[in-house]
Amino acid sequence: MEAAVYNSKGEDTGKKISLSDEIFGIEPNEHAIYLDVKQYLANQRQGTHKAKERGENAHSTRKLKKQKGTGGARAGSIKSPVFVGGGTIFGPRPRDYSFKLNKKVKQLARKSALAAKAKANNVSILENFTLEAPRTKSYIDFLTGFQALDTKTLLILPDVDSNVVLSSRNLQKAKVTTVENVNTYDLMHADRLLIAEGALSKLESLLQ
């Protein structure tokens, strides 16, 4: 599979680069993508939610009324869940939502996500990209050249470039990451993938 290489202005350089069929040419495994995205989202949860049960409420423990003869149900404590301000029945408790996922499944998920984007023609390869200074206007011009200013984009760089990161962080639909930090959620969340030439070889060696 071949792809055109673009410059930072979104212009075709006339150069072609081959994409690995073992990554971009496979049939996407939707279940692997689902599992990896589910694990990513689960890992983002703090799990610090907590509701007080009847034994934890700071209320009086006196008996509200006599046991018999009132014509109503028995009531021994204001902490009972049937009263307003009482304890919560089986309320949420702090817990860890993370779960284990095999490395091969995660690798297959990332391959499948890249293959799905390539199949939809939403992958663009560009010459190694950098900015001289952190400036949002420069990154806006860069995205405008690719006609991707109003779409969710993910730019994958070979290494951290602080100028590019700082230039893009004020744009809600733009995200910049490195090869080591690429995950299935970001790949699937983006409408358009922009992969730097130097990052492509790293990405292919990482996933093969």
From TrEMBL:
A single Gene Ontology CC term: ribosome
Top-level taxon of origin: Bacteria
Any Pfam family the entry gives: Ribosomal_L4
Keywords, in A-Z order: Ribonucleoprotein, Ribosomal protein, RNA-binding, rRNA-binding
Nucleotidyltransferase is among the record's keywords: no
Region (Disordered): 45-77
Oligomer and partners: Part of the 50S ribosomal subunit.
Function: One of the primary rRNA binding proteins, this protein initially binds near the 5'-end of the 23S rRNA. It is important during the early stages of 50S assembly. It makes multiple contacts with different domains of the 23S rRNA in the assembled 50S subunit and ribosome. Forms part of the polypeptide exit tunnel.
Family: Belongs to the universal ribosomal protein uL4 family.
Protein name, per record: Large ribosomal subunit protein uL4
Organism field: Larkinella bovis
Gene symbol of the encoding locus: rplD
